[in-house]
Amino acid sequence: MSYPADPNQTPPAAHAPQGPWLQGLNAPQREAVTSLDGPLLVLSGAGTGKTRVLTARLAQLVATRKAAPWNILAVTFTNKAAREMKARILQLVGPMAEQVMLGTFHSIAARMLRRHAELVGLKSDFTILDSDDQLRLLKQLLDAEQIDPKRWPARMLAGIIGGFKDRGLVPAKVTPAEASDFANGRAAELYGLYQARLKTLNAVDFGDLLLHMLTIFREHDDILRDYRSRLTYIMVDEYQDTNVAQYLWLRLLADGHQNLCCVGDDDQSIYGWRGAEVGNILRFESDYPGAKTVRLEENYRSTGHILSAASAVISHNEQRLGKTLYTSDAQGELLRVSGYWDGQEEARTLSSTIEGLMRDGADLNQIAVLVRAGFQTREIEERFLAIGLPYKVVGTRFYERAEIRDAMAYLRLINQPADDLAFERIINTPKRGLGTASLQQIYHLARSTQTPLLAAAGALADSDELRAQARRALADFCQQIAGWYQQKDTLPPSEFAQIVLDEAGYTGMWQADKSPDAPGRLENLKELIAAMENFDTLGGFLEHISLVMDNEASSDEGEVSLMTLHAAKGLEFDSVFLPGWEEGVFPSQRSLDENGGAGLEEERRLAYVGITRARKKVYISFTANRRIHGLWQSSIPSRFIAELPAEHIEEDMAQGLGLGRAEPVMLGDIGGRVGKPGYGPGWGRMAERQISSPRNSHTDAPQRDRDGWLPDKGRHNFEKGMRVFHQKFGMGSIELVDADKLEIAFDKAGLKKVVASFVTLPEEMD
User: Fold this and answer.
1) Active site annotation includes 268
2) I want to staple 231 with a disulfide (CB 3.0 to 4.6 A). Which of 73, 269, 329, 698 is the partner?
3) Residue 307 domain-assigned?
4) One of 51, 293, 441, 487 is an active-site residue; which one?
5) Number of domain units in the chain
6) Which residues, other chains included, contact 16 with Cβ-Cβ below 8 Å and sequence gap of 6+?
7) Choosing from 48, 50, 287, 583, which is the catalytic residue?
8) How many CB atoms sit inside 10 A of residue 18's CB?
9) Side by side, which strands form the sheet with 292-296?
10) For the domain that residue 177 is a member of, what is the CATH number?
């Protein structure tokens, strides 16, 4: 096979060969692979073989001589996907695959920009800043402009500028309405100053790679024409995840020949929070009149019941192009939907079910637990550790997250003032104005006197060795630690930890941070506080965490994967557990509040993604009560559960819910199969006893104060033998009264020690 020596010339077409890449394709897959000219949208449902279609189509282009390898642009979203595709293409067409322009949006744009850097005021050897370098530069900029970094953090400005670049906006195109209220409306101005500073440094950030190429294409038509003539066939993977800048870049390149093939699934667009525009794929047919759409609907991963259930849930979305997954394989097992009294019972049953799968010969590597939010992993992790069940967190384990390590460092230093590692972690977190020179003096004094760093810091604070500002900062810090040390055994650990984080300014630091991950970090801190309520002393909690972190299970027998639904996209497992399907948790109340109907549809797409990760078994669960960030609240099942067709699910009895009913509580009691769930018998009584929170606006339950007391209800003189109710453990009889602590023999949970403020008398439950 021969190609023109000039890579600008497209080779003549030849009769289409029946290559090995076409063997085994179903009819829609073959149609997608052999439809080479003009705009093509391949709607590829979960597990329908899109990677095979992409690589086969690329091989078909080369084999038919429709395009030389250097005439093909293939864009992926991750380097891993690019490597996998390149390996497959090399197997199909040999060394010629090396000449295909294949890579991520950013890697390809970087290659282009180095050729034309001078057109946007850069040199070809420009530096690409990582996020840390970007933040450092923005902090310098805020300092130069005398903007308070506590009120207007650099991380917040980075997020705003990143949003501008995702939408393809240069500073001059940012309107006052889009400039946000950052620094009293100065976001656009600061964006311009930041861009100017980047040019001075001969540097770009990741957003600039596409933004600068958009500028070059728009202002230099000759360069755009050259790329259009070279790259005559374009293929894009995961098109539903493109942002505005990526969409515009592709349109400019494809508008000449319109040989653009976009592969994606509108039902799996779940990254709106980081700039993805599902509208890009929904508008494809109007953007490219006459475009062909091929639907890949035959699934090669999951059983019939799983696919039918997932298709039924996603069909409730209005903003979608529409397709229905099916399989020629067996229907398989029904999806199991279970209700539990609380999160601890859910975690216990989940882990017991996994142990049962192990006894039946299941591979732990083929089992996954997928949660909506990172804070949900804490309770499950602790249960896995307690029973020695091997697991791995895809992402970061709860107690290894940066914000949790910071909080733990404060508590460790207070509990043990000689803990130098804890001191080093928090001495400037949040920032206290201590420079490198001051910190070096602390280290030098500590080494020379063989004293802990905290003691050395205290000594320096009382000397004239440091600048007045540094002395004040050190003195304040040391006084805080000393004051907290005196308090640590006088307050419950959870209350004490909350005081420490608030007074240290650590909570406020994340509250002021407007980056996308800040709310999740605050949720994790609240979950840490909630975890401490099971301990009587700070030292006992810290010892527990040390043992937890040291309890690394051997992975010889495999490990259960624990991750968020977002992290699970693209993965697949034999068995998938989906806990926490309750209103406010999933769908996320924050997503609904911030994005309304669009937020609900993205949450439903997450549900679809979660269900379709499973090959054989799906376990969905919800609880009647859940402790979220230290507050007990009663829950109603997610509306997504009501959207699961009855013929595809097996409904478990809601064991231990304490509803006072002899008969099983079935999902049919919850509400209609379509629409928002209502309250069935028993659920209404729990809603009346609910600890209200802003996340549960669906009830009129009375608010409790921070000690758990209902309004207009006095504190009681509890006595032995009294019958009382506890939100978590249900009804019981008091066995022992010890100040504000009670030992209660609960009817179902047995003997427990609880705080008096969290129990009520039976007559208050009406």
Assistant:
1) yes
2) 73
3) no
4) 51
5) 5
6) 34, 60, 63, 64
7) 50
8) 9
9) 101-104, 72-76, 233-236, 260-264, 40-44, 292-296
10) 1.10.10.160
Between 46-50, 139-143, 735-739, the lowest mean confidence (pLDDT) is in 735-739
Catalytic member of 166, 237, 527, 652: 237
| Domain of residue 132, residue span | 127-201
Read off the pLDDT of each residue in 518-539 and give the average, rounded to a whole number.
86
Collapse the DSSP code of 269 into the 3-class scheme (helix H, G, I; strand E, B; otherwise coil) and give the result.
coil
* Nearest-angstrom CA–CA distance, 105 and 710: 55
User: pTM for this structure?
Assistant: 0.69
Which residue's structure tokens are 């404060």?
410
Is 267 a known active-site residue?
A: no
What is the CB-side half-sphere exposure of residue 313 using CA atoms within 13 A? 29
Of 57, 88, 613, 627, catalytic: 613
Q: Which one, of 188, 219, 191, lies nearest residue 134 by Cα?
A: 191
Does residue 332 contact residue 303 with C-beta atoms inside 8 Å?
Answer: yes
Report the distance separating Cα 445 and Cα 447, nearest Å: 5
Boundary of a domain, candidates 547, 570, 589: 547
**If DSSP states are collapsed to H, E and C, what string results for 205-245?**
CHHHHHHHHHHHHHHCHHHHHHHHHHCCEEEECCHHHCCHH
* Residue 433: predicted pLDDT: 82
One domain, residues 691 and 582: yes
Catalytic residue among 238, 265, 342, 643: 238
Question: Could you tell me if 419 and 464 lie in one domain?
Answer: yes
Q: Quick one: 537 and 410 in the same domain? A: yes
Highest mean pLDDT (candidates 192-196, 518-522, 660-664): 192-196
Residues 557 and 543 in one domain: no
Outline where 360-401 has alpha helix (H).
377-387
Task: Name the packing angle between helices 468-487 and 436-449 (round to 10°).
Answer: 60
Question: Is 80 exceeded by the pLDDT of residue 692?
Answer: no
Check if 527 is active-site.
Answer: no
User: Looking at the structure, do residues 627 and 610 belong to the same domain, yes or no?
Assistant: yes
- In tens, the pLDDT along 9-65 reads 444 444 455 678 888 899 999 999 999 999 999 999 889 988 889 989 988 998 888
Q: 269, 298, 327: which is the final residue of a domain?
A: 298
Closest CA to 760 of 655, 688, 693, 695: 688
**Radius of gyration for the chain, computed over Cα atoms and rounded to the nearest angstrom:** 30
Q: Name the active-site residue from 232, 268, 623, 760.
A: 268
**Claim to verify: residue 227 and residue 336 sit in the same structural domain:** no
Which pLDDT band, with edges at 50, 70 and 90, does 226 fall under? very high
- In degrees, rounded to 5, the angle at the alpha carbon of residue 540 between the alpha carbons of residues 538 and 543 is 110
Instruction: Say which CATH number the domain at 751 has.
Output: 2.30.30
51 catalytic? Reply is yes
Q: Domain with 650 in it: what CATH number? A: 3.40.50.300
Q: Determine contact, residues 74/92, Cβ cutoff 8 Å.
A: no
| pLDDT digit string, tens, across residues 269-320 | 888 877 888 899 999 999 999 999 999 999 999 999 999 999 999 999 999 9
Binned at pLDDT 50, 70 and 90, residue 330 comes out as confident
Q: Report if residue 467 sits inside a domain.
A: yes
Q: Are 619 and 578 in contact (CB under 8 A)?
A: yes
CB atoms within 10 A of CB 547: 10
Q: End-to-end CA distance of the chain, in Å?
A: 84
CATH number at residue 471: 1.10.486.10
DSSP letter for 582, please.
Answer: B
3-state secondary structure of 268: helix
Same domain, 575 and 505: no
Is 237 labeled as catalytic in the residue annotation? yes
Check if 238 is active-site: yes
For tokens 């999740």, the residue is 520
Q: Is residue 650 part of a domain?
A: yes
Residues 582 and 637 in one domain: yes
Residue 151, in any domain of the structure: yes
Instruction: Judge contact between 625 and 342, C-beta under 8 A.
Output: yes
